[in-house]
Structures are given as C-alpha cells and as structure tokens.
C-alpha cells in the first residue's frame, strides 16, 4: 500500500526535480502562485479553525433536535465533486446568486477575488476538520470538564485549559487534513473564483494552466508543491509529537 | 502555430481545413454590460477570456491587438481591455459558464461555443470580421494510421456537404 501511494509521488519528484528546478521556482508565475496559495490556504485554515471548532464542540456535547441530520449534512461538501461545489457556490455567492446579489449591493464584491478562493477552500476542506475535531471532543470523558467546573473554573477557562489540550492531537490532525485538502483544491476554485495570476491562480491552477502548453514547467511546479506540502506536514507532525 | 504545424506533419492524404471559427463577445442576457466593442474597455467591467494556450484565448489576444492597431477605439485599447480581465480560464466552456451564470460581465468565446443552450442566457455582440480573422481547424489522416481507409472516409465525410451542414448547425463556418 505504501509503495502504491508513494511511487507516483516519487516518479513525479524525479521528473520535476530537474536542472530547471531553481530557475522555474524563481519565475514570477511560480512565485505568484505560491504566494496566492500560501495566503489563501492560511486564511481558509484560520476561518475553518475559528468557525469549525464551536460547531464540532456543539455536535459532540449537545443533544438537540436534528443533530444527527446536521452532522450528516456537514459531511456533504466532502462527497460533492469539486466542480459541483463550485457551481453551488456560484449559484449562492455569485454575483447573480442567492446571497451574492445582496452582498454586492452592500458593497462586498467577492467575484474573482482571493476571498472567493478562500471561500471555495473553506467549503471543500472544513468538513475534514469538523469531523476530526468532533472525534477529539468525544475522545475523553466529559466528566473531566465537569470536575474543572466544580473546582471553580469558568466555562471559558474549562474550554481553553481542559477541553482544548485534551482534544489537541485530533484538532491538529483535522487541521492538517483540511489544510492539505485546500492546498490541492482545484475544481471549486476554478469555477467559483476563476484563474488569474497573482490574484486567484493557486498552485494547482497554475499547474493545470502550465500543462496546457508544456508539461515540463507543470512538473517542476508539481514537485515544488509536493516538497512544500511535505515540509509543512512533517513540521506539524513533529510539533504535535513534542508535548508527549 | 508550432503545434499546428507539428500536427500537419503527421497528416497525409486528404488533409485540409475542416471548418473555420470566429470570435464573438457574449454578455449576460439578464444584465447586458456590453453594447459595443468600446464597452470592453470600460473601467470595472469584469471580462473573462481563455488562457493563452487555448485557441480561443490566443485568438482573443490577436483580435484585441488588431483592434488596438486600427486605432478606432484609441491606441491603448488592447491594454485597457486586458486590464479588465478578471480570469484566464483553461477551458472555453468555463469561460462561457461565467457569463451564463452572471458572474462575469462579458467574455470572448468562439462562435461555436455559443451552443443553443447557452444562447438563451447570453446576448452576443459581433466582432467585425476585419478584427476577427477566422481560426482554421485542420483535419486529416495520420500517416501511421492502421485504419487509413476508414480515416480517409471520415475526413471526406467531414468535408462533404452533409458533414459541413452538421458543423454549420453547431456554429462553425464552412471552409469551402
């Protein structure tokens, strides 16, 4: 299994890590794509953590009518083909869409902006985080939280000093999954945000665009993406391991 | 162009243009933002074109250069229009979709991309033919083809009156 998963990646690296690697890395198109990807996936992760954590906590702790249905519904973006997700976002947040028109009137124009890229990334990646975070909040006995409360901790202190540290490995795992998913996001971004160098053209879009004319720069860019993603994933694993 | 020449080198008998295509401007029918070509340079217009590597994208840039060179709409026309480009799509179908769903104000696509389904939701603004040289689509038989006769029959059908009628129905211009 490991060989099946690794071999194509290694072949890609072998093809991409050529003599042109450094020259291609320094070209404006590649630097722009890397900048757009780093900024948008960073913003998408921040939004996912900020809004996804409370949702996951509610799903794990509270019983309310429709909880199971909501739980299942939140997984839907994971099964939607990205292109369908992009069309759904266009119909909702597009300039002629359900919420897009009121937003436009309010002066918030999302169309073809990096914010639209972030929206597409959050939509397709947040469920991975919410799923993992919920598992994290269910992984320990809630009585520990109750004990902290009995000892006089405020709800906020209980959450930050007890709940978060106990769920942290799961939260990190979910954050890594969600970030990786948004870094590779292609279909929904292209449909909803378009593709313009320096604005909305993320690394996967730049790879696709380059592959239209010549495979070589596309392979170099793919290798850059693999190296970058591996560095981040490895760092996060090392950071997550330290406390224990 | 290099790619087309490389392609032609692979072809033998019966090679030639199967059909021609031209560019057109499309804008959402519900909210048309472009009445004349000059509107393409209006500040703030959201224009979508195809990537340079896509035939329609290459043709769009060439058409803008021709319009700019003519001076009809001012010297810097091509630059101002390209400044309005909010997305360069790798696929012409997606260029059209952006206008169909009202996300973009206008797009440059091939006439054959304006399918009957699309025609209901967009309005087209014709590009004068002097700015709009036809794009030729070559057809031919591969030199190494193991089914040369069947391939030749197909090429001849495409170039026949019946074949051209079908292509015409889908928005292509006849090469004959």
Automatic annotation (TrEMBL), chain A:
It is a multi-pass membrane protein. This is Molybdenum transport system permease. It comes from the Bacteria. The keyword Transferase does not apply. Residues 34-236 form the ABC transmembrane type-1 domain. The keyword Magnesium does not apply. PANTHER family: MOLYBDENUM TRANSPORT SYSTEM PERMEASE PROTEIN MODB. It is found in: Cell membrane. Belongs to the binding-protein-dependent transport system permease family. CysTW subfamily. Part of the binding-protein-dependent transport system for molybdenum; probably responsible for the translocation of the substrate across the membrane. It comes from Deinococcus phoenicis. The chain crosses the membrane at residues 34-60, 72-93, 105-130, 162-180, 218-240. GO terms for molecular function: molybdate ion transmembrane transporter activity. InterPro entries: MetI-like, MetI-like_sf, ModB_ABC, NifC_ABC_porter.
Automatic annotation (TrEMBL), chain B:
One of its GO terms (molecular function) is molybdate ion binding. Residues 1-17 form the signal peptide. The keyword Metal-binding applies. Gene3D superfamilies: Periplasmic binding protein-like II (3.40.190.10). Keywords: Metal-binding, Signal. GO terms for biological process: molybdate ion transport. It comes from the Bacteria. InterPro entries: ModA (IPR005950), ModA/WtpA (IPR050682). NCBIfam families: modA. Belongs to the bacterial solute-binding protein ModA family. This is Molybdenum ABC transporter, periplasmic molybdate-binding protein. It comes from Deinococcus phoenicis.
């Amino acid at each position: 299994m490991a060989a099946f998963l690794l071999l194509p990646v290694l072949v890609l690296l072998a093809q991409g890590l050529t003599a042109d690697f450094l020259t291609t890395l320094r070209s404006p198109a590649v630097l722009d794509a890397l900048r757009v990807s780093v900024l948008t996936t960073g913003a998408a992760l921040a939004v996912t953590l900020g809004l996804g954590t409370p949702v996951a906590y509610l799903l794990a702790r509270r019983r309310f009518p429709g909880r199971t249905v909501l739980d299942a519904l939140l997984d839907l973006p994971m099964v939607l083909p990205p292109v369908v997700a992009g069309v759904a976002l266009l119909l909702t947040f597009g300039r002629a869409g359900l919420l897009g028109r009121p937003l436009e009137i309010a002066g918030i124009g999302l169309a073809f902006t990096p914010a639209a890229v972030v929206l597409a990334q959050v939509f397709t990646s947040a469920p991975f985080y919410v799923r993992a975070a919920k598992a994290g909040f269910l992984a320990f006995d809630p009585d520990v939280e109750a004990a902290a409360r009995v000892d006089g901790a405020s709800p906020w202190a209980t959450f930050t000093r007890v709940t978060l540290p106990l769920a942290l490995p799961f939260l990190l795992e979910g954050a890594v999954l969600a970030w990786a998913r948004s870094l590779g996001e292609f279909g929904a971004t292209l449909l909803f945000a378009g593709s313009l160098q320096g604005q909305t053209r993320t690394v996967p879009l730049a790879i696709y665009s380059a592959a239209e004319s010549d495979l070589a720069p596309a392979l170099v860019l793919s290798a850059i993406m693999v190296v970058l993603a591996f560095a981040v994933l490895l760092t996060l694993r090392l950071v997550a391991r330290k406390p224990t | 162009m290099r790619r087309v020449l490389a392609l032609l080198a692979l072809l033998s008998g019966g090679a030639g243009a199967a059909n021609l295509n031209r560019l057109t401007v499309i804008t959402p029918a519900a909210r048309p933002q472009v009445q004349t070509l000059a509107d393409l340079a209006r500040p703030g217009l959201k224009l979508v074109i195809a990537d340079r590597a896509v035939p329609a994208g290459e043709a769009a840039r060439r058409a803008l250069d021709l319009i700019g060179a003519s001076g009809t709409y001012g010297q810097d026309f091509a630059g101002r229009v390209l400044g309005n480009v909010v997305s360069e799509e790798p696929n012409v179908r997606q260029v059209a979709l952006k206008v169909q769903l009202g996300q973009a104000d206008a797009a440059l696509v091939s006439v054959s991309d304006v399918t009957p389904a699309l025609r209901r939701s967009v309005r087209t603004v014709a590009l004068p033919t002097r700015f709009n040289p036809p794009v030729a689509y070559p057809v031919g038989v591969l030199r190494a083809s193991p089914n040369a006769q069947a391939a030749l029959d197909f090429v001849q059908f495409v170039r026949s009156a019946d074949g051209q009628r079908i292509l015409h129905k889908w928005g292509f211009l006849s090469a004959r």
